[in-house]
Write a structure and sequence with these properties.
Helix content: 40-55%
Largest sheet: 8 strands, mixed
Shape: globular
Number of domains: 1
Number of helices: 9
Subcellular location: Cytoplasm
Order of helices and strands: HEHEHEEHEEEHEEEHEEHHEHE
Function: Catalyzes the ATP-dependent phosphorylation of N-acetyl-L-glutamate.
Radius of gyration: 20 Å
Distance between the termini: 49 Å
Bound molecules: adenosine-5'-diphosphate, N-acetyl-L-glutamyl 5-phosphate
InterPro entries: AceGlu_kinase-like_sf, AcgluKinase_fam, ArgB, Asp/Glu/Uridylate_kinase, Glu/AcGlu_kinase, NAGK-C
Catalytic activity: N-acetyl-L-glutamate + ATP = N-acetyl-L-glutamyl 5-phosphate + ADP
CATH superfamily: Acetylglutamate kinase-like
Oligomer: single chain
Strand content: 15-25%
CATH class: Alpha Beta
Protein name: Acetylglutamate kinase
Length: 304
């Protein structure tokens, strides 16, 4: 046999090995709901966006029920900059006045949502984009943030404007789509009791949706290898108690705070596992779901 033929044969066998490695995972997760949050920072590279979209299409084709929730923080930031509107964050939350809210709704519900929908469709899926307003999916309530150092001082309450948390989810629309041929793609905007739109951190929305849909897994893609310790080393497995300790000692900060808070809420609400994984890695979602190695940080309600 020629060298090139031998090489081809080896590659074919390697492909077969990979497929067989995936088989027990495909069987285990068949018909299970997997909520995947696609983060703004993991969303800036064209090739990665395309590999993400293909992962989602493959998940659906092999019988899983993927639900995509997306962010778009960097994209909102770019648009605000173009429009000369200043922006700032408090503990990972964007302070959102009425003008900023209009931009958030246009960018998340328009540009970003439709881009992801188009990419999934381009790769053979049938995605349907929703904001929390569609089908009355997400009701929001305004949140206020206290300055951590002066928790008892009422004058230190910071008004974040139109920033919300999820007050309720009506999963009917997502359930209907997910259990048919469609892949729901959700932008994190909620409707307030006052009829206004509220800007909700996408991780919080993903966590609540996972909880309400009784998802098997919640996968949060981000722009780091996972949760890192103070030396920058990846923490591969964490329990609820570990997370509390890491927030208290400042190891987890900034945008990682809402991410881990939503993870703990989801775990307490019955989601089996939460994975914080590196969205900068090609096919990160498939690696997590269908290979023995797993990637990133696995969060479980109790230590293993
Ligand atoms: N312990 C930690 N491990 C990893 N990242 C952390 C940690 N603490 C804070 N961060 C910050 O959190 C960021 C991820 O949050 P964020 O930027 O909101 O992500 P995304 O846009 O993907 O939702 C990381 O890029 C990092 O700067
Ligand atoms: C309240 C709040 O901060 N909302 C976020 C919503 C988008 C988001 O969460 O995007 P990422 O997942 O890309 O960070 C924002 O305005 O940036």
């Amino acid at each position: 046999m020629k060298n090139s033929q031998m090489l081809q044969k080896k590659t074919a066998h390697q492909i077969a090995d990979v497929l067989i490695e995936a088989l027990p995972y495909i069987q285990r997760f068949k018909d299970k709901t997997i909520v995947v949050k696609f983060g703004g920072n993991a969303m800036v590279d064209e090739a990665l966006k395309s590999s993400f979209a293909r992962d989602i299409v493959l998940m659906k084709l092999v019988g899983l029920n993927p639900i995509v929730v997306h962010g778009g923080g960097p994209q909102i930031g770019q648009m605000l900059e173009k429009l000369n509107i200043k922006t700032r964050f408090v503990d990972g939350m964007r302070v959102t006045d009425s003008e900023t809210m209009d931009v958030v709704e246009m960018v998340l519900g328009g540009l970003v949502n439709k881009e992801i929908v188009s990419l999934i469709n381009k790769h053979g899926g049938k995605a349907i984009g929703l904001t929390g307003k569609d089908g009355d999916l997400i009701r929001a309530r305004k949140i206020t943030q206290k300055k951590p150092s002066t928790e008892t001082d009422a004058s230190e309450i910071i008004d974040l404007g139109y920033v919300g948390e999820v007050s309720s989810i009506d999963p009917a629309a997502v359930d209907m789509l997910g259990h048919s041929n469609f892949i729901p793609v959700i932008a994190p905007i909620g409707a307030g009791e006052d009829g206004r739109s509220y800007n909700i951190n996408a991780d919080l929305v993903a966590g609540k949706i996972a909880e309400v849909l009784k998802a098997e897994k919640l996968i949060l893609l981000t722009n780091t290898a996972g949760i890192l310790d103070k030396q920058g080393e990846l923490l591969t497995g964490l329990s609820l108690k570990d997370i509390d300790d890491l927030i208290a000692d400042g190891t987890i900060s900034g945008g990682m705070i809402p991410k881990t808070r939503c993870a703990t809420d989801a775990l307490k609400g019955g989601v089996h596992s939460v994975h914080i994984i590196d969205g900068r890695v090609d096919h990160a979602v498939l690696l997590e779901l269908f290979t023995d190695q797993g990637v990133g940080t696995l969060l479980l309600s109790r230590p293993r």
